[in-house]
Amino acid sequence: MAERRTDVLVLGAGMVGVSAALHLQQRGRAVVLLDKHDAAGEETSYGNAGLIERASVFPYMFPRDLRHLLRYALNGSTEAHYHLSALPTVLPWLWRYFRASSPRGAMRSATAALPLIERSLVEHEALMKAADATDLLRRTGWIKLFRSETSMAEGVAELARARAFANVDADVLDAAAIEVREPNLSGEFAGAIHWPAPGFVPDPGLLARKYAELFVRGGGRFVVGDARSLEQDREGWRVKAAQGEAIVAREAVVALGPWSDQIFRPLGYRIPLGIKRGYHLHFARRGNAVLNHPILDADRGYLLAPMNRGIRLTTGAEFARRDAPPTPVQIERALPSARGLFPLGEAVDVKPWMGARPCLPDMLPVIGRAPRHPGLWFDFGHQHHGLTLGPATGRLLAEMMTGAAPFADPKPFAAERFG
Question: How far is CA 346 from the centre of its chain?
Fold first, then answer.
């Protein structure tokens, strides 16, 4: 078997893995990027709302109010859905998620993640400029739409917390202001909040491919292979690539998102990686209708985003086994309301797309050394923020791996926090 030697092997070519590979390359490391697909960004990074969430300073924690819990328990909401057959597997993780979502735990996670959130757009802008991909950045922010006075009041309170915690600003909109920004929306609205700071990417998968092309132009190598073939040997780490080639590296990075457990579990790590599945479906616009911003319908649990392929309808979280067959009931539930909100035409896609968000109970990624395996590093578990945080966590990991001073405290992201 032919061998290729390199400094670092990065497993996984989603936004997280590609970003880590680029930052390591920029710091002088020879890097091979391996994925099961022949292009970057084909899995979780392909399907999301396209937001670089500079304003989301509070993680998506488990709700603790009775109103939300009862709605989710009845399993009829658009924003959350679960498989009954998966409950024996999912419930222990949900219990850890619930416990980590106490007010103190939520604030601890928010404080740890804040330096990453604050660097998210800046790090993307640097990579976009280098990759000649600045045309993929829209500076529109996004709008959170409220249909009831109760949800509007909750949204305003959330804004007040964000302002006090991280000086995040936004515009509170009444019905007239909503119409100015989005004249093609229909419905009765109590108000909205326009978060202007986040960036919007109308083709996240294409952005990941642009970053991968930049990596290759810089001398990196992208190979197709099975990450599950990773083995430790005397020289470091070895993996089988396509056409019978072996890649041998001194160090390896696990950046496989929801599939990272296929590497760390056989090595004896008990990291509580959970999965939130999600779906999207693209639609044409009817007539000359235009959607200027991504719009979250907060009361009805779905988001519409003006992607290059069409208007993307995205859903909330589905709690199921990662590899269970798709059940896009949330798309079906959301579609009547979405058609009432915006003049959607026919579906562009043949069927809904499904992806999996990799989540830890505290909604923080695992970034850093594998405690018991020299030369092995972790970079996974970015929950809803893989697109947002990929370049920032790639920089943090590269700084740790090359001995530079990290721009953020890495301790909250260590694998050791789970014992």
Answer: 27
* Angle of helix 103-130 versus helix 149-166 axis, rounded to 10: 70
Among the listed residues 286, 305, 310, 285, the one whose alpha carbon sits nearest the alpha carbon of residue 295: 305
pLDDT tens, position by position, 53-84: 999 999 988 888 877 778 888 888 889 999 99
With a CB cutoff of 8 Å and minimum separation 6, the contacts of 234 are none
Query: Which tokens go with 344?
Result: 């959607």
Q: Residues near 6 by Cβ (< 8 Å), separated by ≥ 6? A: 30, 31, 32, 221, 247, 248, 249
The average pLDDT across 200-210 equals: 98
> What are phi and psi for residue 333, nearest 5 degrees?
-70, -35
- What pLDDT, in 10s, does the model give residues 303-354? 999 999 999 999 999 999 999 999 999 999 999 999 999 999 999 999 999 9
Residue 31 token pair:
């890097």
8 Å CB contact between 42 and 290: no
Contact criterion met (CB below 8 Å) for 123 and 387: no
Write the single-letter amino acid at 198.
P
